[in-house]
Amino acid sequence: MSSNSKDDLSFLCDICVESKRAYEWFNIKGCSHCYCMDCIAKYAASKLQENVIKIGCPVPDCKGCLEPEYCQSILPADVFDRWGDALCEAVILGSEKFYCPFKDCSMMMIDDGKEKVVESECPSCCRLFCAQCKAPWHTAVDCAEFQKLNEDEREREDIMLMKLAQNKLWKRCPNCKIYVEKSEGCLFMTCSLGPIASTITVPIVRANNDLSASVVDNGHNY
User: Fold this and answer.
1) Helix crossing, 77-91 with 37-49: angle to 10°?
2) Where is the signal peptide (predicted)?
């Protein structure tokens, strides 16, 4: 720190490498390092962006640390609140917390484990979801059946199609996963839409006795 007079003290911040007035000095808690307030505020915000909530001194291997309450006077309100929220979430065990499955909500909730809840309502967006599957409510299928579905088959429209296929006795091509229905011909089909270059031949069970029924997908040759 340099001094021109008792009323005009300044120091050089090692982060921004600029000369700062004495009132901009900020000491790191637990060590002797100090930097300007602006740099420490930006440093804390950048660490939170990296999902680091236990923020130490900028000097590697230093035991100094920063805490929300200690830094509150120099932090923007949104950074202080975000830091506090992140610390609170970290206290809750991962198995006890979950988020609303609707992407436009994502409110954090806590499972207290007192009882097994299946159908539940998000207190924020008021939409129904399955607390066991952590997914939007799946009326047409139970949890065991839902959890067997692939990630890209769990939307409401996908489940409705699956139920329709079951009712219509449609079969699914094991290669491209498209539903097909036999309308005529033999009990074999050739898939031409699969990810492999050569075609495959798989057995197709007669879906119904109506030989005039239409084929669900025309990409399969019979």
Assistant:
1) 40
2) none
Name the average pLDDT for the chain: 78
Long-range contacts of residues 134-137, Cβ cutoff 8 Å, at least 24 apart: 134/98, 134/99, 134/101, 135/101, 136/101, 136/102
| pLDDT, position 167 | 78
Res. 65 pLDDT band, cuts 50 70 90 = very high
C-alpha distances out from residue 192 to 93, 188, 221, Å:
49, 13, 7
Q: Which residues contact 43 (CB under 8 A, 6 or more apart)?
A: 15, 35, 55, 58
How far apart CA 114 and CA 92 sit, in angstroms, is: 16
Return the amino acid letter for 143: C
* 160, 153 contact by CB (below 8 A): no
Q: What amino acid is encoded at 113 in this protein?
A: G
Nearest Cα to Cα of residue 101 among 89, 109, 112: 109
Say what the pLDDT of residue 200 is: 39
pLDDT score at 95: 56
Residues facing residue 128 across a β-bridge: 121
Asked which of 72-86, 158-172, 197-211 is least confident by mean pLDDT, the reply is 197-211
Beta strands in 54-159 (DSSP E): 55-56, 65-66, 97-99, 108-110, 119-121, 128-130, 135-136
Top pLDDT among 205 and 48 is at: 48
Phi, psi dihedrals of residue 34, rounded to the nearest 5°: -145, 150
